[in-house]
Design a protein that fits this description.
Layout (H helix, E strand, L loop, with lengths): L4 H19 L10 H10 L5 H10 L5 H4 L20 H10 L5
Helix pairs in contact: 1-2, 1-3, 2-3
């Protein structure tokens, strides 16, 4: 069973890179058109060149600064989903709609 492990790891990386490339929007693909990246991943997947090239250079990297909180700890505009108890707009809407304060 252990002798199949390298093959399974290569296959898992190949499938991950292929699905990730297909799910990546066209405007987030770098250096080559998306169709060319799919072909590169399919042709060079067995030797890991295609999937590794895609993961390192083909897509826009998402960093913690881009998708996380700002330096002050509060989420900035366009940072994605925020929990309701951390969303100041949501908390203000609760205060406005609260019938107990009338």
């Amino acid at each position: 069973m252990l002798r199949y492990l390298p093959f399974l790891l290569v296959l898992a990386l190949w499938i991950y890179a292929f699905v990730d490339c297909l799910n990546t929007p066209e405007d987030e693909v770098r250096h080559l058109p998306k169709v060319v990246w799919v072909i590169v991943i399919l042709l060079f997947g067995e030797v890991l060149v295609g999937p590794v090239a895609w993961l390192l250079t083909g897509r826009v990297r998402r960093t913690a600064a881009a998708g996380g909180a700002a330096a002050d700890g509060h989420p900035g505009p366009g940072t994605g989903w925020v929990a309701p108890d951390d969303n100041p707009e949501f908390l203000k809407s609760l205060e406005r709609d609260d019938p107990k304060t009338d």
